[in-house]
Amino acid sequence: MSLFNTMAISGSAMHAQTVRLNTIASNMANVDSISSNQNETYRSKQPVFETVLQGQKGLPSGGVRVREIVENPQPLVMEYQPNHPMANEEGYIFRPNVNVIEEMANMMAASRNYETNVEVLNTVKQLMLRTIQLGK
């Protein structure tokens, strides 16, 4: 595998983690949103990654990409607050199914993954520079 392939794989992983961080930010931004019905309530979103296979013998030499962004199937949080201005006829409000602790853990994992891929790119860069210096 060439160093350029390594850079491409690392770059695709960084892009995928950027999408992951953006969906986490969206989930966190909407954690306190309220609605009077289930259809209008924000639902937590998660990216689904897939390996890009390019190469012989099915080896994962192409990187990773975001296949789709799916909504979390967990039920929404329903609270009885009859005096709330957004309450429905039965006195309930609906909150998103965003779990702040899970989102923070996902954010730390995505950040670390991104940092790791930056280090991979830096290492590849250093290897290329040293290879060029060998020819001098």
Automatic annotation (TrEMBL):
- State the compartments where it is located: Bacterial flagellum basal body
| Recorded superkingdom | Bacteria
Give the keywords, sorted: Bacterial flagellum, Cell projection, Cilium, Flagellum
GO CC, alphabetical: bacterial-type flagellum basal body, rod
Domain Flagellar basal-body/hook protein C-terminal positions: 90-134
Residue span, Flagellar basal body rod protein N-terminal domain: 9-32
GO biological process terms held by the UniProt record: bacterial-type flagellum-dependent swarming motility
Family in the record? Belongs to the flagella basal body rod proteins family.
Quaternary structure, from the entry: The basal body constitutes a major portion of the flagellar organelle and consists of four rings (L,P,S, and M) mounted on a central rod. The rod consists of about 26 subunits of FlgG in the distal portion, and FlgB, FlgC and FlgF are thought to build up the proximal portion of the rod with about 6 subunits each.
Listed name of the protein: Flagellar basal-body rod protein FlgC
- Its gene is flgC
